Amino acid sequence: MSGRSWDITASLPETLLPISAFAPFVEGLDHPEGVATGSDGTLYAGGEAGQIYRVSLNGTFEEIGSTGGFNLGLCLDASDNVYVCDNGAHVVKKVTPEGTVTTYSSGAPNRSMKTPNYPVFDAAGNLYVSDSGDWNANNGCVFRVASGGETEVFTTAVSAFPNGMCLHPGGSHLYVVESQTSSVIRVEIGADGSAGSVEKVVELPHNVPDGLAFDEEGNLYISCYSPDVIYRLTPAGELDLLAADWERVTLAAPTNLAFCGPKRKTLVVGSLGRWHLSKATMDIPGARLNYPVF
């Protein structure tokens, strides 16, 4: 049988940034899926054995506490309390800067959390939490937790494994990854706080999207658990491939995204498949997040 030569590079898509722009900068984390930024730009990450890490962009980190569970997404309030989706305990836990851990929400009175995945604060201090449910079961939802901890089901319209989320910079819509349908969905937030219209923003066939983040100009960044890529969707609907890693070394099952640093121009990506975080310097700062005062 004669050999045949293939030029596999001819089929690789063009990216806005080379993979070398994303540099691993911290090693030794426990498969960090969740990454989040505090109000002063400090970076936090979670580990799959419950660890909560405070991470410096110079590559050092410290463990400030542990939920003892399996940490997915996380976010912070103005006092640097960390709110983390603990998939082991099926609850959202609150971890203080001193490491004290309490349960913030276990679900609504008529529906317990099953697979809490990602939390997002709005300007009023409500915490939206995606509950992925089971893969292939179409039984997910999004909860809303009021500032006092009272929890209700916000919407069941996004049910095919709802995953990463972010608020539009204007606060009018909640953007939700629906991993099972390879889509990003946006849910209108009504004046009374109820869920309004539901619209598919983009579909990514043969991808498993996971994390979301906006920049100040309204560009939406979408990380994909598989394959190892990050997309950028412009406000006009133009979809670009920001970065791709066919080697799975720098981006290895990229999950959550966070803009951090004092000017929010460092984009950090969690890699569930490895033990590090990666970062790239961006031209446009990340959108400002909400850090409620309780």
Summary tags:
294 residues; mainly beta; Neuraminidase; four-stranded antiparallel sheet
Q: Would you kindly provide a written description of the structure presented here, covering whatever features stand out?
A:
The chain has one domain: 6 Propeller (Neuraminidase), CATH 2.120.10. Helices cover 0% and strands 48% of the residues. The chain contains no helices and 26 strands. It has strands at 23-27, 35-37, 43-46, 51-55, 61-66, 71-76, 82-86, 91-95, 101-105, 107-108, 111-112, 116-121, 127-131, 141-145, 151-155, 162-167, 173-178, 183-189, 195-203, 208-214, 220-226, 229-233, 239-244, 254-260, 266-271, 276-281. 48% of the residues are buried. The protein is an all-beta fold and 294 residues long. The protein has a four-stranded antiparallel beta sheet, with no helix packed on it. Strands 2-3-4-5 form a four-stranded antiparallel beta sheet, with no helix packed on it. A four-stranded antiparallel beta sheet has the order 6-7-8-9, with no helix packed on it. It is globular. A hairpin with a 5-residue loop joins strand 14 (141-145) and strand 15 (151-155).
Largest β-sheet summary? 4 strands, antiparallel
Per CATH, what is the topology? Neuraminidase
* CATH homologous superfamily caption: TolB, C-terminal domain
In angstroms, what is the radius of gyration?
18 Å
Number of helices: 0
Q: Strands of the biggest beta sheet: in what spatial order?
A: 1-26-25-24
Strand content: over 45%
Give the fraction of residues assigned to helices. Answer: under 10%
- Looking at the structure, what is the overall shape? globular
Which architecture would the CATH scheme give at its second level?
A: 6 Propeller
User: Class by helix and strand content?
Assistant: mainly beta
* Strand segment tally: 26
Distance between the termini: 72 Å
The secondary-structure element order is EEEEEEEEEEEEEEEEEEEEEEEEEE
